[in-house]
Each structure stands twice: as structure tokens, then as C-alpha cells.
């Protein structure tokens, strides 16, 4: 079996993540991860707090929740980026070692696997997993354990949404039997 374009895309995403980890180092990557986790948590827990301000502009409740999520996420990431820049300036004064960069590579690999798994999870909520490229890929199915784990973390309001499928019309993705995790 030859390498398919999906395999090359997966390898490229992971390689780019590893390279970024090598360049930035473990400490900066860890701070960035903590900021992302905090941003996602705050956005998930607090998006309803923006409802009173968004209601005059957005009538649909689902869209309003999504907009609140995105606004809180972006604001938290912006503040986090400023904090990370300040911390990075302080860390440069101490001099980062090669160990920090090697740990950054390992961190980058784990992050790359997570990103690929998240992309696969989203793709599997459509008709795309039934396509030839997912069946012929050497690497696609090896991400299934992480994809299954991530599927359990998807917020319920997203699972209850409907996706427009090009071949089959509208699919209710709240029925987990429709998600074929190959």
C-alpha cells in the first residue's frame, strides 16, 4: 500500500507541530497549552454570560451561544498571548537549554497527534470517512483511540446540531451510530 495524500497531510501536520515545538521550546509551548485550555474552559462555561449583550444582534440561540464562545475564546487567547510574550522575554534572559527544545519537540508531537485526531473527528461527522482516501490511508485509522476519546469530550449542544451532508441531506449527529469511526 502506497502513501496516500491523507498520510502526507497527517505527516505534515505532525512534522510542523514538532518543528514548532523545537523552535519555541517546552516552557513556551506549555504556557501556550495552559492558555488554550483556560480559554476553551472559560468559553464553554461562560458563553451564556454574553447572551444579554448579544441578544439584540443575534436572534438564533445556537448562533448566539457559538458567538459567545468565540468571543470569550478570542479575548482569553489575546490576554494569554500578552502574558506569554512577557514570560518569554523573562525566560530569554535566563537562556534556554537544548533540553527545553527537545522536550518541546516531544510536546509538539503530542500536540500534532491531538490536532490530527480533532480534524479526523470533525471529518467523521460528515460523509467524508466513507471516501476512498480514508480507507486507503495507512495512518488515518491509527488515530481512532484518540478520536474516540475526543468524541466523548464534545459538548452536548454540538452533538445535537445538524450537519448538511452533500450526499444524504441533513444528518442528525446526535445519533452516535451515524458516526462511523473506522
From TrEMBL:
Membrane topology reported for the UniProt record: Multi-pass membrane protein
Biological process terms in GO annotation: toxin biosynthetic process
TM segment ranges: 6-23, 67-90, 102-123
Identification of the protein by name: Colicin V
GO CC term (a single one): membrane
Intracellular or extracellular location(s): Membrane
Keywords recorded for this protein, A-Z: Membrane, Transmembrane, Transmembrane helix
Organism in which the protein naturally occurs: Legionella spiritensis
Domain of life: Bacteria
Pfam families listed in its UniProt record: Colicin_V
Amino acid at each position: 500500500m502506497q502513501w496516500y495524500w491523507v498520510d502526507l497531510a497527517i505527516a505534515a501536520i505532525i512534522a510542523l507541530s514538532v518543528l514548532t515545538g523545537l523552535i519555541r521550546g517546552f516552557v513556551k509551548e506549555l504556557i501556550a497549552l495552559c492558555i488554550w485550555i483556560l480559554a476553551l474552559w472559560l468559553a464553554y462555561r461562560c458563553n451564556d454570560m454574553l447572551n444579554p449583550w448579544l441578544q439584540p444582534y443575534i436572534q438564533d440561540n445556537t448562533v448566539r451561544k457559538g458567538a459567545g464562545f468565540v468571543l470569550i475564546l478570542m479575548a482569553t487567547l489575546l490576554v494569554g498571548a500578552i502574558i506569554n510574550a512577557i514570560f518569554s522575554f523573562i525566560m530569554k534572559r535566563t537562556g534556554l537549554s537544548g533540553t527545553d527544545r527537545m522536550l518541546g519537540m516531544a510536546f509538539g508531537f503530542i500536540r500534532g497527534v491531538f490536532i490530527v485526531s480533532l480534524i479526523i473527528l470533525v471529518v467523521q461527522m460528515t460523509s467524508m470517512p466513507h471516501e476512498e482516501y480514508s480507507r486507503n490511508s495507512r495512518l488515518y485509522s491509527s488515530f481512532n483511540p484518540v478520536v474516540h476519546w475526543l468524541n466523548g469530550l464534545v459538548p452536548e449542544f454540538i452533538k445535537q446540531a445538524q450537519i448538511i451532508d452533500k450526499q444524504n441531506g441533513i444528518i442528525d449527529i446526535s445519533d452516535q451510530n451515524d458516526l462511523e469511526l473506522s
